[in-house]
């Protein structure tokens, strides 16, 4: 709730977008809490924060635990934040209990998980995992033309540590489900075995601005109509691959966006996802063909840029078992689940054994300011996270 006061939304949630002043303020609060818990803060060139609790064997690779503090423009208070503060709570509990672990433990705040202000999502963890190029993402611009790298520097959170050199023994991320399954089934804990794959295709349609009154219909090159038909196409294609595939267009820009001018240009982003790589590729191919047909019929030009992508993820069996055993031991109801949303864990799984703990959220709602959880759900998630992390970090004495 303290963190939620920083970058408040307009309807009870948060607008603490990556590398804004509000993000910087949230980072300072997190740093103060980490230092009060005796942690030493590291900061890399993507602004990712690493708060370290020493192990009895400081040379062992640490167990990392965390998520992200940046939010959507109309985000909730728990997406990402629960996982970062859940990690801090693990450390506070170890301090309270006087427990030492062989491996150090590092609480992590990954920069720009959301990809809302600067695409792609999971940006810093993607650079850390070696799948995104740091110099390239520094140049990515937001809708006001500001560059990611310059904004990171401006808020004073660009570190000097090279990205990706840290050795990770294991990474655990606690996150709300952001979907309805756990709540509908009355289950406390999601043992995340897989993450579905994702593609973001940014489409630019170029037609011709003209008068909406005096231009005969057959002579129009309407980029707004083109966008509408592509949005319908994406929905229809996703519906062909039920029950798992999903597809939508959330970002849409219309130029010149005037009541009585036919839209000459539209820019929008297609978000398609599936747990199966073949389905994701099939949807991608059908959408590209469909765009070509739609634009041909409307005499408009198009450009398609892939601005985000990761294949379906299978999390580490050992780490998943640690999560499942903890839920079992603690007597929480649990079930295996595939993550519908992308997470930093999806990239870190490529460079270290990784798993996630999920807790339900009210009405499965997220990426909405009304996002809510119960204290019981948060406590259960943090409890399971604690046991999985501490078991993996190996208690001493
Ligand atoms: O888009 C996602 O899945 C994540 O919430 N950034
Ligand atoms: Mn998230
Ligand atoms: Mn999110």
TrEMBL record:
Which cofactors? Zn(2+)
Q: Pfam families annotated for this entry?
A: M20_dimer (PF07687), Peptidase_M20 (PF01546)
Q: How is the cofactor bound?
A: Binds 2 Zn(2+) ions per subunit.
Sequence positions that bind Zn(2+) 1 = 68, 79, 175
Top-rank EC class of the record's enzyme: hydrolase
Q: Does the keyword Flavoprotein apply?
A: no
Q: Does the keyword RNA-binding apply?
A: no
The record lists Zn(2+) 2 as bound by 79, 114, 367
Q: Where is this region: Disordered?
A: 1-23
Q: Where is the Peptidase M20 dimerisation domain?
A: 196-292
Q: Which UniProt keywords apply?
A: Hydrolase, Metal-binding, Zinc
Q: What is its EC number?
A: 3.5.1.87
InterPro entries listed in its UniProt record:
Amidase_Cbmase (IPR010158), Bact_exopeptidase_dim_dom (IPR036264), Peptidase_M20 (IPR002933), Peptidase_M20_dimer (IPR011650)
Molecular functions per Gene Ontology: hydrolase activity, acting on carbon-nitrogen (but not peptide) bonds, in linear amidines; metal ion binding; N-carbamoyl-L-amino-acid hydrolase activity
Task: Tell me its family.
Answer: Belongs to the peptidase M20 family.
What is the name attached to this protein's record?
Answer: Amidase, hydantoinase/carbamoylase family
The scientific name of the source species is Mesorhizobium metallidurans STM 2683
């Amino acid at each position: 709730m303290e963190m939620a006061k920083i970058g408040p939304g307009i309807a009870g949630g948060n607008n603490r977008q990556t590398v804004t002043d509000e993000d910087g303020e949230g980072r300072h609060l997190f740093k103060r809490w980490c230092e009060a818990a005796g942690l030493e803060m590291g900061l890399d060139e993507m602004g990712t924060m690493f708060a370290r609790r020493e192990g009895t064997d400081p040379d062992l690779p640490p167990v990392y635990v965390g998520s992200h503090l940046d939010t959507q423009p109309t985000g909730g208070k728990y997406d990402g934040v629960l996982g970062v503060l859940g990690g801090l709570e693990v450390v506070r509990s170890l301090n309270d209990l006087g427990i030492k672990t062989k491996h150090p433990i590092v609480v992590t705040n990954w920069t720009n998980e959301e990809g809302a202000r600067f695409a792609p999502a999971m940006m810093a963890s993607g650079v850390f995992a070696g799948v995104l190029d740091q110099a390239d993402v520094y140049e990515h611009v937001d809708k006001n033309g500001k560059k990611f790298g310059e904004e990171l520097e401006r808020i004073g959170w660009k570190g000097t540590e090279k990205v990706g050199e840290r050795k990770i023994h294991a990474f655990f991320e606690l996150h709300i489900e952001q979907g309805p399954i756990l709540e509908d089934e009355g289950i406390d804990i999601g043992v995340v075995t897989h993450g579905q794959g994702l593609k973001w295709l940014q489409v630019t349609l170029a037609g011709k601005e003209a008068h909406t009154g005096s231009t005969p219909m057959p002579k129009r090159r309407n980029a707004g109509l083109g966008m509408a038909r592509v949005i319908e196409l994406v929905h229809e294609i996703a519906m062909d691959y039920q029950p798992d595939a999903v597809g939508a267009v959330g970002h849409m820009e219309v130029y010149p966006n005037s009541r009585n001018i036919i839209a000459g240009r539209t820019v929008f982003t297609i978000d398609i996802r599936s747990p199966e790589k073949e389905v994701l590729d099939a949807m991608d191919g059908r959408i590209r063909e469909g765009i070509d047909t739609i634009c041909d019929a409307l005499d408009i030009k198009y450009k398609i840029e892939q601005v985000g992508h990761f294949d379906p993820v299978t999390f580490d069996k050992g780490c998943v078992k640690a999560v499942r055993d903890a839920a079992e031991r603690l007597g929480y109801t649990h079930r295996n689940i595939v993550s519908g949303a992308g997470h930093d864990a999806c990239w870190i799984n490529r460079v270290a054994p990784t798993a996630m703990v999920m807790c339900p959220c009210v009405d499965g709602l997220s990426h909405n300011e009304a996002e809510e959880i119960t204290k019981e759900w948060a406590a259960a998630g943090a409890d399971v996270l604690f046991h999985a992390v501490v078991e993996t970090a190996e208690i001493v004495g």
